[in-house]
Structure formats: C-alpha cells, structure tokens
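Hi there,

I know you've been waiting on this one. I reran it after we fixed the sequence typo, so this is the corrected version. Both the input and the resulting structure follow.
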Amino acid sequence: MKSAGAGVYDNRLRYALLRVVGVFSGCIFIAAGLIALFDSRGSWVTVAFFVFFGVVLTAIPLLFRSGKVPPDTRIIDGTYGTFLPVRTTSAARLFVFIALALLFYALALGGLVRAFSGSVRSNFWLALLVSLGLGTLFALAARGTLNARKRENVGIFLTATHVFLLDRLVPVELTWQEISAIYPHWTKSGRILQPVKNWLTFERVTPTGPSSGEDSYRDLFALSSGTLEPSTKLDLLSIDPHRVVTAINHYLNNPEARKELGTERALAAFI
C-alpha cells in the first residue's frame, strides 16, 4: 500500500469510521459501568471509571473536525494581504488532556481519602506520587494546547510580493519569484484508520538537494511531509483544499493578478 502520493487525499471515510469505532467503544465502556453498578462486587469508583472512559472514547472522534474560519483580509506588520487561517490544534486534543488530568487528580484525591479513612498498602505513596505527576503533566499539556489555540495570525498570508507561512514559531517568508511550483500531496503513517495527512508544498526555484550543506533550508515538517521544501498542513485549513491549491497557483502563474490580494475579489477565489 502506498505511503505517499500526489493530490489531495479524501479523509471523509476514515473520519467516519473513526467516529463509528469511537462511539462503539465508548458504548461498551458505559455498558460495562452499568453492569458493574448492578454487581454486588462493584463499587461507585469502578462505575465512574468505566463511564468516564466511555464518554471520553465517544467524544474524541466526534471532535476531529475543522472549525469554519473563513479567509479574510488583514494587516500584519504593516503589510496588507489575504489571510488563510489554520487551526493551531484540535479541540479533541484539549479535551483529552483535560480529561486525563482530571482523572489522575481524582485518583490521587480518592487515594488520599482512603489513606485517612483506613490502612493502605506499602506502595501507596508511590502510586500517589505517580498519579499527581501524571495529572500535573496532562494539566500542563492542556494549558499549552489552550495557549496554542489563542495564538493570533496563524496561517498562510498572501501579499502582492510575498507568501508568509505563519503556522510555526519562526515564519517562512518567500517571494513569489522564489517559488517554482505549488502542489498538494499526502503522506500516510500506516496505522489503521489513522487519517492521512495532506500537505501544501511551496517548491522553490532552487530547492534543497541531498548534497546541500548544513546551513541549507530544512522545513519544520520535513520528516512528516517527506520533503525539505516549505510545506504546510492542508487539512488544518477550514476551506476547500482544492480551491486553495487552485487559487494560489492562479496567483503564482499570473503575476499581474497578485495586486488583488488583500481585496474582496481575492477572498472570492478562496470561498
């Protein structure tokens, strides 16, 4: 099976299957919790554990979707242009981190309550330390994810003279004359049901070759995208990827049309 290819890969079937598997798995956990509720050997802790993970498993695949953020015109660092926003991170990731942080903190709290109400095993304090550590780790991850979602001007910024990739801490700045081709392609991890990653690559007139020196450009996403050339995650754009590719190639191949960038006419090309 191919692990990479040209064009835009349609992930709709994979996302649909993920949602079905997630809901089915979640229902199994919730059903197990209800069964434990009627079992004399069960406890409320066991019931809460199964129901909690059932809700998490059900919710995660349903949150794997792109928000509807349309392109707009912006002034960034005094430059006027057309901005294509990119999601910095998914709501699913934030939900998972918060849920896991709450889970491990709840386990630690439950352990403390039990410690003060009766005897505990010799490895209790180690388990408590691990629970608090993991809870803190996931809480920090949730905070980082939330901060990433608050970042401004994350996306592709097109002006009459430049293309800016603002989806990274160190932006990539390219003049239109530096770009020889703009093309979509995809890479596959090989994991079952794992969504395929779609990329938009801006190949330069003088691309990075295999014998280039250490100071040559290496893209941030080179290991994932399979190319050293500047690339951005096409899936994170909330607009039709085919229209994005067509519109940007239109401005690449028609220099006289680039003066439209930053106007309503340019926005119409992407919507």
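Quick highlight: The domain at 153-270 is CATH 2.30.29 (PH-domain like).

Best,
R. S.
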